[in-house]
Amino acid sequence: MQYTFSQKCKKIFSIALPSGANSLLDTLNLLVGWYFISQISKQHIIALGVSLNYIMILFAITAVFFIGTSSQVARYFGAHDFKSIKEVMGTNLLSSLFLSIPVCVVFFLCIDMYFDWMGKGVDLESRALGREYLHLVLLGVPALMAKTICVAGLSALGDTKRIMYVKIFTTTFNVILNVVLIAGCDFGIFHIPALGIAGAGLSNLIITIVEFVLLLFAIALSDIKLKIALVFRTLYLKRMLAVGIPAGIERFLSIFSLILIQKFVSSYGGDTLAGFQIGTKVEAFILMPGFGFQVAAMALVGQSLGRKRLSLAYDFLKTLLFVASLVMGILGILICIFGFELSGIFSTESKVLEYSFYYILAVGLSQVPLIWVFCLDGALRGGGATKLSLLLNSASIWLVRILPMYLCVHFGLSVMLLFVIIFAETYLRAVLFGLMFKYKIWEKFISRF
Q1: Domain spans of the chain, in order of start
Q2: What pLDDT is attached to residue 122?
Q3: Closest CA to 400 of 369, 373, 429
């Protein structure tokens, strides 16, 4: 079957739009908790911020399960091998629940070591509040990892709408829980005391469990081809780890590089750091469609390979790159034009706004190459070529971004050079990814299921 341009666009947007909306809802979920906690005290803000950075490490682990599951499900869906899909889902679901136990234990044991590593910036009160929050949130690790399997399976089929409907409900529920649990509420008959940061942790725990249960029901009670057979097949676990572990390592290195970049920027002073953080907040909102296009690339390439139609994968990628470049290019120009106004939502200090605008200019003018990286990286993941993805991203980020930034900071060069490095490295990485596909080098790394 040959797809027309409009048919390809319809398939792309049917996956990308709900997936982008899911990313936006995740961000809103985070901001809701931040808002209510920020009203209590500075120590509460520090505790929540430091604790969330600790939890971010978990996403390197969930990436193993997400990529390892979605690449297999997409491939088998394209091949119409629905029996294998059920067994992959069952194997990976059981594996995630089993492996979540040691993960949970390790994260609990390392809480104090993490706070010690953070240094004097986290005072004793903030540490106590952070422990209180983490002791509740970490109880949801099994549900979080199991939920990841459900999301990966639905995304691989391109059924991101079902995820979006669940996310809309849980986001609404999360707002209610935050109001009731953090600030307290008097219902007349009974009274719920203000739990503060413990309320935020409890809300997070409840939402994680509810989201997993709803996704499980959405899969079990629907007529979609994604079902779960509670069997364990060592073959599928090995394939998940083979594809997923490089993706997990890449995610961890990316998270750590972001922490380092923030550390580099902070060496130029508080105004520079504040401007950088505001700029990243502004950029975060236009990145939502980018994440959606990445999921679309992963699903469509995986399904095409499952049908043994590599040419169809290339066809979808060409259309995807054209459409995504158009959308993200326009969004990039818009944030450049309105950079000062958007930054002004978060601050009124002229120096802070100036640094924020320079960062926005750097990322806004590099949105097109960035979306090429997103889409082609998604294609590699859909094909199970995560080792190549790890090599390209890590080499570019650490050698072309982190190393030059370190040298700039070490020799006391202008902070503007950091923004130039971000701009230039994005273009270079896009070229590297493009060459892998132009000369079909990536085909040698495709996993054979």
Answers
A1: 16-232, 246-449
A2: 65
A3: 429
Q: Work out the percent of the chain whose per-residue pLDDT is above 70.
A: 97
What is the rounded distance in angstroms from the CA atom of residue 272 to the CA atom of residue 353?
A: 9
Contacting residues for 352 by C-beta, under 8 A, at least 6 apart: 271, 274, 275, 278, 343
Burial letters for 340-350: b for 16+ Cβ neighbours within 10 Å, e otherwise? Answer: eebbeebbeee
Higher-confidence position of 375 and 128: 375
pLDDT at 25: 82
At 174 the three-state DSSP class reads helix
**Residue corresponding to tokens 């390209």:** 392
Stretch (H or E) spanning 186: strand 185-186
- Report CA torsion sign: 360, 363, 366, 372: negative
Tally the C-alpha atoms within 13 A of residue 418's C-alpha that lie toward its C-beta.
30
Q: Are 359 and 276 in contact (CB under 8 A)?
A: yes
Over residues 146-162, the mean pLDDT reads 91
Which residues, in sequence order, are bridge partners of residue 185? Answer: 192
pLDDT tens, residue by residue, 214-248: 999 989 887 777 889 989 999 999 999 999 999 99
Q: In 191-319, where do the E strands start and end?
A: 191-192
Q: Are 347 and 353 in contact (CB under 8 A)?
A: yes
Structure tokens at 420: 């130039």
> Contact at 8 Å (CB) between 393 and 82?
no
Give the SS3 label for residue 243.
helix
Q: What are the structure tokens assigned to 301, written together? A: 């390439």
- CA distances 111 to 11, 68, 95, 115, 132, Å, are 44, 28, 25, 6, 11
> Has residue 121 got a pLDDT over 60?
no
Q: Which two tokens stand for residue 95?
A: 């594996």
User: How many angstroms separate the CA atoms of 67 and 401, rounded?
Assistant: 25
User: What DSSP line would sit under 409-424, residue for residue?
Assistant: HHTT--THHHHHHHHH
- What element of type H or E holds 164? helix 160-183
Task: Kindly tell me if the per-residue pLDDT of 203 is higher than 80.
Answer: yes
Quick: pLDDT tens for 286-333: 888 999 999 999 999 999 999 999 999 999 999 999 999 999 999 999
Q: Kindly report the CA angle at 11 between 5 and 14, in degrees rounded to 5?
A: 135
Share of the chain above pLDDT 90, in %: 58
- The tally of CA atoms less than 13 A away on the side-chain side of residue 10 is 5
**C-alpha span between 177 and 184 (Å, rounded):** 10
> What backbone phi and psi angles, to 5 degrees, belong to 191?
-120, 130
